[in-house]
């Protein structure tokens, strides 16, 4: 008895790491060069975005640093460039590299923030609807249907108009990031709710749920501790897609002028700010942020594809 | 009063086309440490009976009448909170398929510790120690290593041992085992059954064994119920029923055992199949399949077709059959005439 006691005390700490090292997740990752490359690019983008205040040559939010005389300078490989601005400058004379780094940061914050909100709402509602069923289910799912019938754009217009009318445009600009998180989070939660509800319905009829009820567990405990972990694979997979979608939604809203103001640009508002100068030959203001956006969304989607293949129970059982 | 006393239990399912009666007038009792078998075909209401004992019938099912007294208290009247205390703690349940009963994403240890912590105020460390002790009791090889393994890493037999360990975790008074060995390999079935029997005897735990295996029932249980179409049709001491079944259905079941047939010939069977609960035949639910609706002299027994049989006592058994009632009546009358 004493020997077994000491052996079990040390066992669980070591096992998590060794379990991960021996896991199918890591194994398939090691054999998938696309996933590896995507992860490297993704981490690099996130890292430079997070470290923007330290990496960027200048602060694009600081009007004092902007030199209007240096506007519309091309990137370094084009003739007429200025070595101070390796990626060129935009129409207001902001260093495009710095603005890009800060912009990617804003885009990522909104993307992840919105998805966190979507997941919080969607997973809770989906669990409740799937587990409790009946009227709760009907009510929540009709709510989801109604929500889905409003596009992200309409939610953005309504919320944006309300906030601007109530508090003025300056307030909207100041709180643009949390407002966009709220807008995109509200507009897309039914994706999560539907996916989670479907998996909960499948899980609920399994015997381990009956067994848990027979053990005298409360409904809340059964929902969150027993059913939720079993629905995590689809949640992970749609999360990657949703992050990519949220970033695109934010870019689209900003491009339409419903999102981040140009004084505080995200990738989308950068693309928009350059769009007016596309005809006049300053293609880089639009093209470079556009490329960054495409690469960011692409690597997230590629990672999501890989994750879906790995977690798909039909391809891999265990 | 017995530890568990079920009286006139009625369970119905509220379906759109009307209520379907899944259990009708089920009564039995179980003493502390006693083992009871519930036998019947698929759909006879065995599993519904098991779940209703814990007041856990899934919607649209509900308990329409009767009482379930456990340790003096009526489970049908209890609050949810009080019921949760009984479930798992005083009465636990073992399911048919060990592949499905354990949560695939939680380790064995996590699941056991969680059960303990849901009912007792103890530390993780203590809970793990108790879990380990229970795993040792079910004779699982290298029990300490199992705590950190996940269900998919264990074989079917080992999983069922883990489930038995979980059922015993809180030292319950009664274990309800719903076909605990049907999903297992034949070679392991006997082992698991022997283990369950041994543990129940050792810890004086009552066992309600739900099965369609008459062999297991006769080896393990002291008393048994035979169910047909939601009714108990015969109940009493296992030995008496197996040796001298009164009800034609019980007789049919025992005759259908492979060892009752002459080698080389077809196995005996009861003709027809069990009626669905929402379309029961009139009178005795078994009469369309029964060979005794006509008396030996060829006259039909109208009662079988017209009215549901009540219970008659034959020896230590209670039987719901018009034919048996008539026989008993005939035996009684000559005895009175002699006097």
* Oligomeric form: heterodimer
Instruction: Enumerate how many helices of chain B there are, as a single number.
Output: 13
Radius of gyration of chain A: 24 Å
Distance between the termini of chain B: 38 Å
What is the percentage of strand-forming residues of chain A? under 5%
How much is the average pLDDT of chain B? 88
Strand segment tally of chain A: 0
Q: What helical percentage do the residues of chain B reach?
A: 25-40%
Q: Which stretches of chain B of 5+ consecutive residues score pLDDT under 50?
A: none
What's the CATH H-level homologous superfamily of chain A?
Answer: MetI-like
The percentage helix of chain A is over 70%
Intertermini distance of chain A:
32 Å
Structural class of chain B: alpha/beta
In short:
Chain A has 14 helices and no strands. With 318 residues, chain A is mainly alpha-helical.
Report on the structure:
- The complex is a heterodimer of chains A (318) and B (339).
- Chain A has 318 residues and is an all-alpha fold.
- Chain A has helices at residues 2-21, 24-30, 33-50, 52-55, 96-132, 134-149, 152-167, 169-174, 176-204, 207-214, 219-227, 232-255, 267-275, 284-311.
- Chain A has one domain (51-58, 87-315): MetI-like (MetI-like fold).
- Chain A is globular, with a radius of gyration of 24 Å.
- Chain A starts with a helix and ends in a 7-residue tail after the last helix.
- Chain B is of the alpha/beta class and 339 residues long.
- In chain B, the strands form two sheets. Chain B has an eight-stranded mixed β-sheet with strand order 6-7-8-3-9-10-12-11, with helices on both faces. Chain B has a four-stranded antiparallel β-sheet with strand order 2-1-4-5, with helices on one face.
- In chain B, a hairpin with a 2-residue loop joins strand 11 and strand 12.
- The longest helix of chain B has 18 residues, at 186-203.
- The two termini of chain B are 38 Å apart.
- The mean pLDDT of chain B is 88.
């Amino acid at each position: 008895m004493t020997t077994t006691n000491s052996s079990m005390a040390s066992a669980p700490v070591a096992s998590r790491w060794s379990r991960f090292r021996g896991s199918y997740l890591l194994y398939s990752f090691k054999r998938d060069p696309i996933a590896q490359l995507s992860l490297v690019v993704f981490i690099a983008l996130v890292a430079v975005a997070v470290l923007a205040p330290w990496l960027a040559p200048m602060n694009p939010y600081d009007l004092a640093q902007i030199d209007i005389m240096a506007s519309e300078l091309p990137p370094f490989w084009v003739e007429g460039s200025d070595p101070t601005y390796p990626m060129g400058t935009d129409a207001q004379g902001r260093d495009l590299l710095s603005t890009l780094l800060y912009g990617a940061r804003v885009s990522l914050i909104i993307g992840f923030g919105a998805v966190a909100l979507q997941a919080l709402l969607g997973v809770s509602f989906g669990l409740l609807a799937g587990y409790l069923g009946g009227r709760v289910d009907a009510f929540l799912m009709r709510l989801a249907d109604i929500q889905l019938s409003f596009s992200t754009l309409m939610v953005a217009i309504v919320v944006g108009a309300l906030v601007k009318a109530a508090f003025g445009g300056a307030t909207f600009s100041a709180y643009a990031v949390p407002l966009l998180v709220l807008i995109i989070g509200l507009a897309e939660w039914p994706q999560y709710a539907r996916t989670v509800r479907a998996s909960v319905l499948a899980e609920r009829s399994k015997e381990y749920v009956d067994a848990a009820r027979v053990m005298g567990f409360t409904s809340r405990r059964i929902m969150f501790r027993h059913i939720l972990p079993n629905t995590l694979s689809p949640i992970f997979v749609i999360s990657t897609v949703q992050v990519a979608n949220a970033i695109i939604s934010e870019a689209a809203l900003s491009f339409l002028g419903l999102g981040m103001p140009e004084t505080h640009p995200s990738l989308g508002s950068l693309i928009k700010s350059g769009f007016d100068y596309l005809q006049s030959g300053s293609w880089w203001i639009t093209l470079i942020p556009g490329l960054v956006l495409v690469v960011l969304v692409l690597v997230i989607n590629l990672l999501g594809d890989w994750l879906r293949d790995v977690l798909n129970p039909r391809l891999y059982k265990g | 009063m017995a530890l568990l006393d079920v009286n006139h239990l009625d369970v119905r399912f509220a379906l759109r086309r009307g209520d379907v009666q899944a259990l009708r007038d089920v009564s039995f009792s179980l003493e502390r440490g006693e083992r009871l078998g519930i036998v019947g075909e698929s759909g006879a209401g065995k599993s519904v009976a098991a779940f209703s004992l814990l007041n856990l019938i899934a919607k649209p099912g509900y308990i329409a009448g009767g009482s379930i007294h456990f340790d003096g208290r009526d489970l049908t009247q209890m609050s949810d909170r009080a019921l949760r205390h009984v479930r798992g703690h005083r009465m636990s349940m073992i399911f048919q398929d060990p592949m499905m009963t354990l949560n695939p994403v939680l380790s064995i240890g996590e699941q056991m510790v969680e059960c303990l912590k849901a009912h007792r105020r103890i530390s993780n460390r203590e809970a793990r120690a108790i879990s380990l002790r229970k795993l040792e009791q079910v004779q699982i090889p290298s029990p300490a290593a199992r705590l950190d393994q996940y269900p998919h890493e264990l074989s079917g037999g080992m999983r069922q041992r883990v489930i038995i360990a979980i059922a015993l975790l809180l030292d319950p008074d009664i274990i309800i085992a719903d076909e605990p060995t049907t999903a297992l390999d034949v070679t392991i079935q006997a082992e698991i059954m022997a283990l369950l029997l041994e543990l129940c005897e050792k810890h004086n735990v009552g066992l309600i064994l739900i099965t369609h295996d008459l062999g297991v029932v006769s080896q393990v249980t002291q008393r048994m119920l035979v169910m047909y179409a939601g009714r108990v049709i015969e109940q009493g001491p296992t030995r008496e029923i197996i040796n001298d079944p009164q009800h034609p259905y019980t007789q049919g079941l025992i005759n259908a055992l492979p060892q009752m047939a002459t080698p080389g010939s077809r196995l005996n069977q009861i003709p027809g199949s069990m009626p669905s609960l929402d379309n029961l035949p009139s009178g005795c639910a078994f009469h369309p399949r029964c060979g005794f609706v006509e008396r030996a002299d060829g006259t039909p027994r109208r009662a079988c077709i017209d009215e549901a049989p009540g219970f008659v006592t034959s020896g230590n058994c209670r039987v719901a059959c018009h034919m048996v009632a008539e026989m008993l009546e005939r035996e009684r009358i000559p005895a009175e005439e002699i006097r």
